[in-house]
Write a structure and sequence with these properties.
single chain, 138 residues, alpha+beta, 5 helices, 7 strands, 36% helix
Length: 138
Amino acid sequence: MGRYDELLYQLIKKGIRNLFESVTRDEINSIIIKHPGVPDDYIEFLEEIGHGDIGDNYFMLYGGLVEASEIYDESKAEKLKDIVFFGDYYDGHSIGFSKKGEWEMVDVDDRLKITFLNTSFESFIKNKLDEYLGTLIY
């Protein structure tokens, strides 16, 4: 039984399982090798659910971890070099993990203000999906 079985069931029940694309075993292994210490709950989500767009411009969950240099210009990326990102809100806010210490989740706003979220990836993503599922009318 997987960590995200209930969530997967809800996605299927609501007919929105197709929001997420699979992440291959090779891609998962590459993430783990490149980023030792990445949280298990993040890896398990990619394995069990995948990645994709949660709603229409609500939240994008990337198919892997993205370095700041892939998102920001050089001067901004240097300030964020200790963060890898796994998603964004389409409005200048990106969400990721601080690679310093315990891989804590952080929010980086459009002014590069870093806020530690004090939550696990599992809690964060379940909350995002619950919020989105709550907006669906059937």
